[in-house]
């Protein structure tokens, strides 16, 4: 930490075009190494044979909500946070994602799950935006065979992979959902997607692009 502080001071005074290039290359390499490490960790954690039992796919809404509330309650106790968003929650500039186990209104997300189950759309979901604690990814795992999450912030995926149990049913794609290359990765991984849950970039153009490219 201290080294980094002094290093930054040093760079402030001695920054030249050459050091700027070195800095960029080092940053790029650090990001790449971190990405490879996360992918390795995901592969290692997928070996855990007990994961299947803990996060098994359910068909009854009661069981799904009960199991999920157990998870949100554990997060509440551990991190002293709220479980769900308040029904009158208004998104603000300040990021409060770490304050909630899941960034959804309880009644809304449970009603959405009811519709998914009624229509038997439970094979694959594509989610954009894991968030700080990854609440929706955990919830989808109780409903779907496969959960694919695209997340732009590597730190969120790293935290999730370290803290939660993962299996072959989890697919994480690190990157921007606006990128065609990232969306192509989804198409290469699964034949079709039953449900799209877009909770990352909510801009009209971005949402439209995902719907057109994935075409459910
Ligand atoms: C509202 S949070 C998601 C919360 C989560 N779905 C939940 O309910 O617990 C939004 C997340 O989307 C990610 N995000 C924002 N823009 C994105 C993009 N263009 N592509 C991928 N992820 C994005 C952010 O990094 C953040 O983690």
CATH class: Alpha Beta
In the sheet with the most strands, the strands line up as: 3-2-1-4
The percent range for helix content is: 40-55%
Topology as a string of helices (H) and strands (E): HHHHHEHEHEHEH
Largest sheet geometry: 4 strands, parallel
> What structural class do helix, strand and pairing data support?
alpha/beta
Q: What percentage of amino acids are in beta strands?
A: 5-15%
Ligand names:
S-adenosylmethionine
Please, how many domains?
Answer: 1
Mean pLDDT: 91
Count all strands and give the number. Answer: 4
**Uncertain segments:** none
Question: What does this 3D model show about the protein?
Answer:
By secondary structure, the protein is α/β, with parallel strands linked by helices. It has one domain: 3-Layer(aba) Sandwich (Rossmann fold). It has helices at residues 2-14, 17-45, 51-54, 61-79, 106-118, 135-141, 154-163, 180-189, 204-214; strands at residues 124-128, 146-151, 170-174, 195-198. A 4-stranded parallel beta sheet has the order 3-2-1-4, sandwiched between helices. Helix 2 (17-45) packs parallel to helix 7 (154-163). The termini are far apart. It binds S-adenosylmethionine. S-adenosylmethionine binds at residues 97, 102-104, 128-131, 135-136, 150-153, 156, 176-178, 199-201.
């Amino acid at each position: 930490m201290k080294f980094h502080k002094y290093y930054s001071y040093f760079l402030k005074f001695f920054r030249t075009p050459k050091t700027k290039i070195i800095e960029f290359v080092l940053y790029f390499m650090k990001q790449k190494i971190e990405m490879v490490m996360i992918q390795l960790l995901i592969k290692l954690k997928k070996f855990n044979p007990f994961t299947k039992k803990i996060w098994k796919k359910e068909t009854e809404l009661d069981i799904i909500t009960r199991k999920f509330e157990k998870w949100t309650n554990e997060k509440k106790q551990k991190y002293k946070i709220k479980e769900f968003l308040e029904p009158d929650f208004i998104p603000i500039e300040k990021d409060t994602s770490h304050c909630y186990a899941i960034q959804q209104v309880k009644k809304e997300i449970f009603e959405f799950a009811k519709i998914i189950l009624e229509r038997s759309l439970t094979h694959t979901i594509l989610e954009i935006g894991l968030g700080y604690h990854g609440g929706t990814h955990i919830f989808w795992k109780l409903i779907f065979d496969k959960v694919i999450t695209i997340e732009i912030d590597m730190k969120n995926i790293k935290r999730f992979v370290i803290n939660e149990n993962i299996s072959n049913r989890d697919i994480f794609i690190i990157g921007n959902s606006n990128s065609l290359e990232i969306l192509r990765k989804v198409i290469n991984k699964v034949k079709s997607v039953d449900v799209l849950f877009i909770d990352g970039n909510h801009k009209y153009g971005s949402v439209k692009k995902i719907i057109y490219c994935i075409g459910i």
